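Handoff note, outgoing to incoming analyst
You'll be picking up this chain. Sequence as last confirmed:
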Amino acid sequence: MSLVSCMWLIICALVLAQVVLRVAECQVRQTADKDKDLPGSSNHHHALHKDGSEEGSAADAGHIDWRSVWETVLAQFLLGSSMLVYRADFAVIVSQRYGTSNTINGYISSMSSIVGTLTGFAVGHIADVYAGNIRRLFLHAAAAQSLSLLVTANAPTVILFATGHAALAFATAIGRVASIQTMLAHGSQQHTGALIGTVSTVMSVARMLAPAASGVSQEVLSHFGPPILSVALSLAGTVVLLITPSKAVTKTHAE
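Most recent structure output, in case you need it:
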């Protein structure tokens, strides 16, 4: 127990350090954006006011072009719902499929948590490989999530299931970051709070519906129901990203 406790303390410390670094980075970026938006002189400020540009900026700030972000929000809802359904009765379903004990289920969950934590430290480097094309990263993460769910849904042995479960943790850790960045790239920095709040509300609805959907699918298709439903939802989210064109570049130039 002492070794396991030390391992969890190390993981919690790493997660806490990552959160602190992310918050500090966001604060620095917000400060830099505010300084960049400040006018160079008071005469320039009065000229903008005289030309009516300030009124136009205020009108733009109060309007969100939801048509440019609906596909990202829908994809987040479908991909997030698939994971919520998958995890709703995880231990029960694994025990029914493979006859594993609670100890084995705990090891599988701990392994995926370690993979997800380590992936969180590497997300920035992975995003650099895509040269700023965060939407493509989101699409690839969604495809990897769907493939991992297919592996876990059809795994004949617990070893193959654990491998797919670890790959799923890797894909979802990247997808969480890429989804938020994709939505902000489609929208505007002036509406960051509204966009993030909207996604949080949508995911709250998914958390409310996922346990009921998992239970109904388990009643209909036994312990194969939740994995099949998770695969279907994840594939639907991937298809949404695949068939909808990216407007992030156009949006950035327009602003």
